[in-house]
Amino acid sequence: MPVDLNGYWKMISNDNFEEYLKALDVNVAIRKIATLLKPDKDIFHDGDHIIIKTLSTFKNYNMDFYVGKEFEEDLSGVDDRKCMTTITWEGDKLVCVQKGEIEGRGWTHWVEGDELHLELRAAGAVSKQVFKKT
After folding, report:
1. For the chain, where are the E strands, in sequence order?
2. 12 domain-assigned
3. Cβ distance 17 to 121 under 8 Å?
4. CA–CA separation, 17 and 3 (whole Å)
5. How do residues 35-91 score in pLDDT, each as one tens digit?
6. Any coiled-coil ranges, and where (predicted)?
7. Domain containing residue 70: CATH number
8. Which of 29, 32, 77 is nearest to 52 (CA)?
9. What predicted TM-score, i.e. pTM, was given to this entire model?
């Protein structure tokens, strides 16, 4: 049985995020703003249906999906691209593969204790974020 991701999570660390944004070709002004933010994650998880809301004072981004079902993801809140996205469980890790213009793009979420870990990947760049459950 996959882990329960339900809850409200506050960011406590954000490593190598600017390099990840550079790999996505995000312009320098947006990168500078984004690296200063400490977004929260509000996650609703019911079986294969998951909604991940990334909330900040600058921009919010919502992902509403079913595990194992490919869908077209509109990343206009991130880097203004569209991609075909598939999210699956690999053990206790939620793994996302985003097929589009950027090679090797995706992310992985997993829980350790009261911390939610997120590894973001794009074109060889890797960013690691950690959130604490509130």
Report:
1. 7-15, 40-46, 49-55, 61-66, 71-74, 82-90, 93-99, 106-112, 115-122, 125-133
2. yes
3. no
4. 26
5. 999 999 999 999 999 999 999 998 899 999 999 999 999 987 678 889 999 999 999
6. none
7. 2.40.128.20
8. 77
9. 0.94
